[in-house]
Each structure stands twice: as C-alpha cells, then as structure tokens.
C-alpha cells in the first residue's frame, strides 16, 4: 500500500464504525499519521437497519461516506480494504490491497452475526448486520407477499406469510414491531387479493424474558406492546435448526416458514493473527485492559464491540452497543496522545447513558440510570436520541422527514424490491 | 395466474412506467378489471437516474411502489412478472408466473438500451436505464477512484480516472455535467492523495451537435456549459468498439478507459409474439395508429416508448420521452372507456410541452414552444418541473431537501458503495 511515511508515528485503525470514527475524530489535527481501513466506504448507523429492512427508511440515509468524515483532517488516509491478518510481530497488517506497517494499531472491527456453529441456520436464515443484508431482507419480505399471491397451496402460502425472528434483543423486538405495523397498516391496502390476517410474526427467545439487558419493567412492557401488536412472543424456547422450510426447537414446537431472521447473537469480528491467543473470550472478543490495550501488547488496542473490557458491573465485558464504542473511541484518542508524549494514560470508565428500544408507533421503552419509562414519551426520546447520533445534517433531515411522513400517513414508502433476493438465487 | 374473472372486461397493462401508470389512474373506479404487470414492484422516475449514479439522490427517492399508486382502486390487480410472450391469437399473455387471458391488452413495456448489435460494447459498458444499473455505475465510479489510489502504474491510473460517455442526448449531457461537478467539488477533498486534476470526462456524439432534438441555441449553450465545466465534447465521432480497456472510433481517436457509459440510444422493449411482424420500426417500436392501436389489431394497444406514432411533425414517431407517454396513457384511458361504450375514440394529438436538460449548478437549457432560455432561470424551471412530475409527496420532499443541501453545500452525500460492482465480478 503506497502510503508515504512521514515523521509522525503511524496509527492504523481497522474499522469505521462508531468506535473507529470517534477515535479518528479525536486524532484529527494531531501530530500523527492515521490510516483508517474499512471494507466499506461508508459508516453505517446499525441501530436503524431494521427500518431499512421494513421500508421505513432508505439505506442511503443511515450511511455516511467515511472520506467525508475525514475530509478536513490533514495526515489522514482512508483505504477501502479487507484486513486479512495482523502480523503483530512485524507490526504489519496484511490486506487484500497490500501490507502496511504500523507504529500503533487499533482494532475496531466490530461484530458479526453469531450462528453458534450452526451452518444450516447460517445458510438459510437472514441476518441484519449490514446494509446489503438489510436490503436483502426487505426484498425477501416483499417477494414473499408477491409469491403468496401466486400459490393456491395453502400450506405454502402460510409459510410465505409466517415470519420467525430468533432472538428477543433490541434488534429482534424492533423488527417484530415494525413487521406487525406493516401487517396492520400496509398489507391490507397493498394486497387486497390476499388474506393478510394470516400473517404471523413470531419472536423466539431462549430465556424467560425479552430485552434481557433492560429492567424487568421495560422487558414486561415491551412484551405487552408486542402482544398488543399481535406478535407471538415465545419464551424459554431455543431454536435448534432451520432447513429452509421448518424451524425446529428444543421443544415440540415447530414453525413452517419461508423467512427466519437470525438476531440471536453477535460475536467479535476477529482478525487472523490475534485470533488464536489466550485473550479471546467465548464471544470472540479481544480481552483489553482499562486502557483498551489488547492483553500482552502495549501498542495494539481494541475498541468497541471487538473489545472485551471486564468491569465490576460487567463481568462478561461491556455490552456490545454504540455507547461503549463511542466512549472508548474518544478516550483512546486522548490516551494515545498522552502515550505519545510519554504521559500516563487514564483508565476508561463506562458512563452508562441508558438503554432503549422502540416497539412501534408511540411505543418504546427507555431505561436511564435514574428514570425508567415506557410509552409515547419514551418513543419521542428514542427518536430524538437516534436523530442526534446519526452522522450528517442531510441524513438527519431525510430521516426526520421520513419519520414525520410515516407517522402522519401510517406508511412506509420504501417498500421497493430494487435488487430481488430470491429470484437471483 | 389466479386472478378471478368478473363481469367486467379485463384489460392487461404491461409496464408500470409513465404510460402504464397514467393509463391505470384513468381506468380507476371504472367498470373494468385492470391487471398491471411489471418486472419491478415500483415505478421508476428515469429522468433522475443520473443523479443516483452520481450520488446526488438516493435511489429510493425516485422510486414509488406501484401497489401504492393503485391502492384505492377497486378491480385492480398488480402482479410482479416478466412477460415472455404475447399470444395475440388466443388473447393471452405468457409470463414467468403463468398465463393470463385478456379482453384488451396495452403494451407499455418502455425501452431499453440500444447497443446497435455490438455485443462487446454491451458486455463492457455501463447503462443507466434502471435503478440497479444506476447503482452499479455509482459503485463503479467510486471504486475506480479507490483503485486509482492503489496503483503506481500511471497508465492504469489515468484509465481509472477517464470517463467516456457515448451519446450526447439529455442522459449523456446531464451525467457529464454531474461528473464534472464531482471532479471540481468533491474529489479534491475526498482524495487528497490523488491528483484529481487528471480526471477526464469525455462525451462522444456521432452527429455535429449535442442535444440533437433541441434548438440550436440550447445545443450550443449546453456545449458551452459543458466546456466551462471542463468536459471534453467530441462531435462527429462514432464509437466503433470497447473491449473493456480501449474505446475505438471511426477516426484515429482512441480512449483508454475503465468506464464507458453507453447513452447512445434506446430501442423499444419488444415482447415476443408481436416482434416478428411487419409493424416493427427500425428502433424496435410497434407502429400504432392515432388511437394507439397496434397495426392490424383492434384490441391491442401500445403507449409510451414502445409505441411508434407517426405524425407530420414527427415522421419517425413521437419522441421516446416522458411527455408523450403520459399523454398517451391518459388519452388511451378515455378512449378505452369510449370504446367499451361503443362510442368513437378520439385521435391522439401530442401537446409538445417542451424539452429541457440540466448541465449543472445554475446551468440548464429549456426549449418551450414559444420561449427558449438557458442558464439559472432554466435551471430553476428544470428543478420545479422534475419535482412536480415525481410521484409521491415523500419523494418530492426528500428530493427537494437533497437538492437544497447539495446546492448550499456543493455536495453529494450518497457517494456510497453499498453493493460493490467490480469486486463481485
């Protein structure tokens, strides 16, 4: 990779997610050379992917060009690259576009869907971690309804209109709620020829409550909201397999369905070279100390989902969410500048700003440190916070317009099959 | 196809473009059963595709769900289908989802890119007639700049930064102008490592002027605008081939380029069954009479690009543009109702509402019947007219916001490689 060395130390950041971007911004206008590598040329606002899948927002309004984030920073270089391996001994990253030496390395590669080793589930189910995946899901949902119109086989038609979401975390809950609103508000008008009352939305959770990380109140209320919307919430049930037709579970319960959305877990997006060591946790994350240094290294850091920082409150590591990522990115920026000046770094302290999830129109749950509330006010808070954290004025405006429009009109206009999913397979 | 027969006559419309949608709206709430078939579930506002390719607009804001257009109309059925053949003898359309009988058939299948039989050009060049094609072009343009950064081979780098647009009609001119503005306003900031002054934008026109259908004044002014923006306008040159690396012409001129956009012509999207007859024109259009009846048929009609209606002013048929399509769709709606009541149909008279093209910021050319003007006022008119003809309030709002933002900030934020084009090949 032809990036010229300067007199400044070179910091390579792998990943332009919440953590990587927060760090990059902190390092701007400093006496360091920063090389940011990402396999996409955009930052992707993952918390709103479910709205892309369900036609509420266009994909481009939750993506932001990484080059634009960095455009005013001198000494910054972005490269569109897949990092294949980290050669920690030789301070080199090995990528599909060549190798590059670093003085400091920050792994901010995020997370990916965890299928817990079940290859058949991975093959047949849909994920929702990236924009292309979310667009594939959008196409599939719409193609299923088009296909349901065509078959006279009742069994097949029901399977096409049966949606199974595995995992009752925020992603699963938010998707289930959005699908339920489509069932109610859009399908009867769009498909007058189809008995859309037969549409089933199922959410399967292995433990005894949904939104496990949140308060009991939030969890209970979210379940009430979902049931009011007509979603079937199945608890204490573990999915054992999906062969493309039938979901089997650890009980007698089975689901005949054409669509399984796997939102049952994530794991760190490990990179070869740091993956065979003794500092990997069960969820494929890199153990880091309070300065986000990867165990055994002084010049290799990890931040965000890929980093597992154990604290008293979080014995399994900080949660894999936007807030720890942003906070770690910012603080690591400050710490690296300290380190370069030979000054001591500051321990990271996670400020829990709360957790929230939206279920549908006027229905959300918010757990702040001191206040926990649910319903319409929570829903406004949820929207405000998500608009605030979106990058870019244009994106905020477009998302805001869409939300107002969708709210007033009970609509979701991006129900477009731009790239068919089934037909190409 | 399981669409039940009613006592109403069945009209099948093939295609949900400008013509098909205008017709469908006219037939709403009438005593007819209408079946609209399209291979996409959305109507696509083709005149703005070049803004999708150049990151100025998101694809979803120029697409509109066909089911939503028809949602309040009783006796309407939409099916997502490819029509493979028309069996005119048996009044049947043959599609990938089964056959369907009709009483009346309206072919509104539009047009497709015309490569004039050159398979190599078709294989290696990019087209811009559909949203996926426009997104592919957007990805390719951005991938080329990313790749230009990686190569130390100057020849290769120049080819990656050399854009050749074949065809000086509105599509070619508008795309060239947009690329020129990207070169000027965005590339230097996004790619500080790259000498973006080497970016070349070429437009090749086989005749002696661009925007051939417009007035001399418009054509000349458009050329001035393009040259002011740094676009190389090559006239009286015909492209003979492109092998993926080199564009050859009927002169000594050659272009080494990684990107050819073929905007040199369109032809009717003919459907088998009506394609072997003597009423096909040189540009693959169906000859129709003044009632849009396909020659030799009383119950088969064609409207829009696929229809060739010869008039005194247009001896080669009405132009393949939105206006004739919309006007024919509307009038055919009225005429079909007349026909069903046994009353005489009215001859179609094309109302020429003018032609316009935009070249860039504050730069457009407008030819109305009585007035011809160019420059900033033309540009405002162009924007107003395009907003007006976009379907859907939300689309209009989102496009408007984007245009204001792009204008104020000299920006185009949808420069996203959502689905890479080169890497997947």
Explain what you see:
Chain A is α/β, with parallel strands linked by helices. Chain A has 2 domains: 10-39 and 81-113 and 266-340, FAD/NAD(P)-binding domain; 119-264 and 361-409, FAD/NAD(P)-binding domain. Helix content of chain A is 32%, strand content 22%. Chain A has a 5-stranded parallel β-sheet with strand order 5-2-1-9-20, with no helix packed on it. Chain A is globular and about 70 Å long. At the A-B interface, strand 4, strand 5, helix 5 and helix 12 of A face strand 4, strand 5, helix 5 and helix 12 of B.
Give the spatial strand order of the biggest sheet of chain A: 5-2-1-9-20
Q: Using only CA atoms, what is the Rg of chain A? A: 22 Å
Helix content of chain A: 25-40%
Largest sheet of chain A: 5 strands, parallel
As residue ranges, the low-confidence spans of chain A are none
For the record, the count of structural domains of chain A works out to 2
